[in-house]
């Protein structure tokens, strides 16, 4: 085809099509920068007819949605395997009049998506690396991570929309959907991390557990009198117990608005629950151990029973459908713990004389935190005033940190006591 032929096609078909499609006067003609489209004679012809032509970037025929339609036509004709000219004409007619108008609607809709996502993707791909002030940025990897984050959702989306009608069927479609999701997840995860640095509803919740988490992470191992503790594994277990509820909570509050939706939220809730389960379980092991220090057999049985009981509690807490049921799954654990406090109180059980008071304070603070959280104090009195700071959830977080501190002091006393205590039979 040359320019003259192209102009003839336009002359015979363009305006009749506009009339047939009842497009009125508000339309703009679009073609790409193929030489016969941009030939001086063609330009002149379009100008004389007073046709408005869309400005089109050079060297970018792939942006042209009609190319998708031509491809679709080629695929359909190829499927029919025409053997002679008559066959070809017949399948062409059939494709153009019956099948193509239908797939054209789909392709135009898809093409719009591709353009919407595809053009920014190309811009980001070239403009970000070129315009980024690399020389002034000291943490280069953050810049690279940011660049990847900006590309990923658009890349996933473009691939998804471009290939969603691929005839690979279900497996291909599933892969594309996953790719699209991954892109969203990438930018979303970084968005969540960036949310650490500006004001929003969850910020207080993140920091009330995040700062103590960091303190515990570094201060406990540094300040623990490891050399004076004979049962090292109890110290390690205790350290993990102190970290776990805050780690679960920080992850939960940091990523709870992640657009991964229901499955992500559910996983986070489970993580948060696991943190609480861990401190309930691991945190109590040193208490059980030191209470029954002088009864090795009973001690081992009690530790095993407590771990089994806790496993069941963790299972029911994670699968619980309501918060009341979730609380109830911890009731047996609490009861078991209290029976040990009772043993100590009547003087049968071992343990440092100072630690029982610490443990009781620990549980009192935890219960108080739970009550404040459920009762929604103080925001129930002045709704809206405590959205950012000092709401019940944050007060609960602070009380939980206090509770962990008392656990730590109690266990520390007990571990040192184990070292200095001599059982009667020794
Ligand atoms: Zn929380």
Automatic annotation (TrEMBL):
Alphabetic keyword roster: Membrane, Metal-binding, Transmembrane, Transmembrane helix, Zinc
Domain of life: Eukaryota
The keyword Amino-acid biosynthesis is annotated on this UniProt entry: no
Cellular localization per UniProt: Membrane
Entry membrane topology: Multi-pass membrane protein
Domain Tc1-like transposase DDE: 26-88
Residue intervals passing through the bilayer: 205-224, 230-255, 267-289, 301-318, 356-375, 395-412
GO molecular function: metal ion binding; nucleic acid binding; signaling receptor activity
InterPro entries referenced in this protein's UniProt entry, alphabetically: AdipoR/HlyIII-related, RNaseH_sf, Tc1-like_DDE_dom
Predominant subcellular localization, coarse grouping: membrane
One GO cellular component term: membrane
Residues engaged in binding Zn(2+): 253, 393, 397
Similarity comment: Belongs to the ADIPOR family.
PANTHER family: ADIPOR/PROGESTIN RECEPTOR-RELATED (PTHR20855), PROGESTIN AND ADIPOQ RECEPTOR FAMILY MEMBER 4 (PTHR20855:SF138)
Protein name: Tc1-like transposase DDE domain-containing protein
């Amino acid at each position: 085809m040359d320019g003259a032929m192209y102009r003839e096609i336009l002359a015979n078909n363009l305006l009749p099509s506009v009339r047939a499609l009842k497009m009125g006067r508000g339309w703009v003609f679009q073609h790409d920068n193929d030489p016969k489209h941009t030939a001086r004679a063609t330009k002149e012809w379009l100008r004389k007819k007073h046709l408005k032509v869309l400005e089109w970037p050079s060297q970018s025929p792939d942006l042209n949605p009609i190319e998708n339609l031509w491809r679709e036509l080629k695929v359909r004709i190829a499927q029919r395997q025409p053997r002679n000219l008559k066959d070809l004409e017949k399948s062409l007619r059939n494709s153009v009049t019956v099948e193509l108008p239908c797939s054209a609607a789909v392709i135009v809709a898809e093409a719009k998506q591709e353009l919407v996502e595809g053009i920014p993707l190309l811009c980001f791909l070239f403009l970000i690396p070129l315009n980024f002030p690399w020389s002034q940025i000291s943490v280069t990897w953050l810049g690279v991570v940011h660049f990847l984050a900006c590309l990923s959702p658009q890349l996933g989306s473009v691939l998804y929309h471009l290939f969603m009608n691929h005839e690979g069927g279900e497996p291909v479609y599933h892969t594309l959907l996953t790719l699209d999701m991954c892109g969203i997840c990438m930018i979303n995860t970084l968005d969540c991390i960036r949310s650490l640095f500006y004001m929003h509803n969850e910020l207080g919740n993140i920091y009330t557990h995040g700062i103590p988490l960091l303190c515990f992470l570094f201060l406990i191992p540094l300040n623990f009198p490891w050399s004076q503790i004979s049962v090292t594994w109890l110290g390690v277990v205790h350290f993990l117990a102190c970290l776990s509820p805050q780690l679960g909570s920080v992850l939960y509050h940091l990523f709870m608005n992640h657009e991964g939706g229901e499955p992500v939220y559910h996983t986070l809730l489970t993580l948060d629950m696991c943190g609480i389960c861990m401190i309930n379980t691991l945190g109590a092991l040193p208490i059980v151990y030191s209470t029954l220090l002088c009864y090795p057999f009973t001690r081992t049985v009690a530790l095993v029973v407590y771990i089994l009981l806790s496993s069941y509690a963790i299972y029911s807490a994670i699968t619980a459908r309501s918060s009341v049921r979730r609380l109830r799954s911890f009731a047996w654990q609490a009861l078991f713990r209290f029976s040990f406090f009772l043993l100590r109180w009547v003087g049968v059980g071992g343990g440092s004389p100072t630690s029982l008071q610490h443990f009781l304070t620990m549980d009192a603070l935890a219960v108080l935190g739970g009550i404040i959280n459920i009762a929604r104090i103080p925001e129930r009195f002045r709704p809206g005033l405590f959205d950012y700071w000092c709401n019940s959830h944050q007060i609960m977080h602070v009380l939980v940190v206090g509770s962990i501190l008392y656990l730590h002091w109690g266990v520390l006393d007990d571990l040192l006591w184990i070292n200095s205590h001599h059982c009667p039979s020794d």
